[in-house]
Amino acid sequence: MFIKKPSDISSSEITSRDIYLNRRSFIAGAGALAAGALAYNKFGRILSPSESVLAGTKLDYSKSSFSTSETETPLKDITHYNNYYEFSTDKYEPADLAKNFNTRPWTIKVEGLVNKPQTVDIDTLLKQHLEERIYRMRCVEGWSMVIPWIGFPLSTLLSQVEPNSKAKFVQFTTLYDPKRFPGQQRSVLDWPYVEGLRMDEAMHPLTILAVGLYGETLPNQDGAPVRLVVPWKYGFKGIKAIVNIKLVEKQPVSTWTKAGPNEYGFYSNVNPNVDHPRWSQAKERRIGEFTKRPTLMYNGYGDQVASMYNGMDLKKNF
Amino acid sequence: MKAKYLKPAIFLASLVPLGRLVWKAYNSDLGANPIQVITWSTGTWTLVFLMLTLSITPLRQLTKQYWLIQYRRMLGLFAFFYGGLHFTTYFWLDQFFDLHSIAKDIVKRPFITVGFSAFVLMIPLALTSTQRSIRWLGKRWQVLHRLIYATAILGVVHYIWLVKKDIRKPVIYAIILGILLLYRVIVWVTKQTRDRARIDQPTTPINHKAVPAD
User: Fold this and answer.
1) Nearest partner of B67 among B4, B146, B129, judged by Cα
2) A105 within domain boundaries
3) Looking at chain B, which residue has its C-alpha nearest residue A144?
4) Disulfide engineering: A299 pairs with which of A20, A270, B56, B105, CB 3.0-4.6 Å?
């Protein structure tokens, strides 16, 4: 049962919902809310046969001191400018193409070099203690946003499965289902999308699994029902619609690394001094701003994360 | 009659892409990253007008509608116009006159190097597009204006190189350009063979009408 909380977000943001959500899914969303979690499936289908909309359900969360106080990017931009190749290579298309993406039922298998492998249901994850993390997000393409994610540290989930001493890396995999992900019908990338983190990066308190933004469950186009957020790395490290988390011994090969080994490295830490081979990374355009701003080392999270990379050649380990 | 209404009609139609951008900008309808949308749109239309300009010759020769030639200059100038807007967008809106960063981009980023070259090569063509220049330059005008082939090739390469992964759209332009250039190669080879045949058989009466080559 989802309990509606008195609004945490300002009324101006609520008003803007009408603009960004189309009416059909808004009604379905409201209907689903009213029907409640138990009767959800039945009523959801009656209200809107092809739509199972949980996006837009309010979440309970606490604030976090890791949040930035910078101006948040409007919800409309966060939900209408998405690199989500499983839907489309055009950033303006996922908003519409993801409309009917069904995120229930959904489980995440956590396995590999662990003592207690688990298959976790998304609704279990939603019930645990959630935090709001307002993070900068820097895309490798040279634009950035400030996004109020709702989620929990990845380390909480990893601790539950008890990684053994052989586990050195964490490998994440997106759902593979070309029927639901039209973009997977073309081999523009090697599907399914795979990402990876080193163990210390995965256990870092800034690394979260996000299940929501702007106080509500994740919109489909932003990676619903659960995605990775690693704020000091380029956005593509934030793998979406995760179904598998595997602890492994060898460094996983990320999908973008496979697609362009000299352009997208395993680490992909935000670094204004190491350019993408085809464009500069020195500056970025914050969505909503006119002139570009300088890109910060580790996207401004250097104080918390730089020590993990001490002594590493960042030009080589890009 | 054709000339009377068609020319202003093509002129106005060619301004539609710009009008659409201005309208969308006025209504704040350019999405999350307006500068990128303006850059892409003006870039795309530069390529479209380059392709249109290059298709006039094959079209008029194949359909024998020789009057089409009178629209070639206008289409070419619109390619230059949108190319200029594209470059201005980059120079002004994207880089905000950061000359240092622009110079670095042009030298270091191959896709910008080729894009910039493509634009620069269009400048002499636009400058010599007047009737007076054509008369003044004579035969040399045609030679000079072959630079459009370089511009078109560099423009398509610029597009292919800037795309992150999905090269479907730039490849479409590459194919169209390939066809337009192949046509010229075929015409040239055919002409060469014919000319040689004539030299071999000097008794054949030569009916040599001056066909404007491109």
Assistant:
1) B4
2) yes
3) B33
4) A270
